Sequence to fold (163 residues):
Amino acid sequence: MTGQPYGEQPENDPTQQTGGTPPPNYGGQPGTPPPNYGQPGPPPPGYGAQPGGVAPLTPGEERGWSVGAHLGGVFLSFLVPLIVWLVFRERSRFLDHHGKEALNFQITLAIAYVVGFITAFILIGFLILLAAWVCAIIFSIMAAIAANRGEYYKYPLSIRLVK
Fold:
């Protein structure tokens, strides 16, 4: 800018062509993006999001939610497996399988509890309630262990209502 009067810019100045000052280059070559200073850059195209903008689950998340579906059924009946299955069934085949299995088993147990409650006045109902409760605990723990290992599990005593 030697030889130019104060406030005037030469004709070949890049700031004149863009209408303002060029963005700072942070010491890099002209035309190169600024460094990211250790921050992760954008993911490669096609990585991460599935159609519809839903991110896939990691294997640890899949195992955790499937264990939650099986053990949650022990405390809140079919409500926990139903929610897990409805939320994650399209994001993971593993969770779709475990959610359906846990939901079917908890529905079967709910039927057994109703039958046991109705027949409790002839005393056989108490045995049905006890057997259903023991099966709920044992089979749910077995299913949770299998899910935590990343294995598929099918309950032995379950009516397949949800397919």
Notes: The CA atoms of residues 113 and 129 lie 6 Å apart. The mean pLDDT is 79.
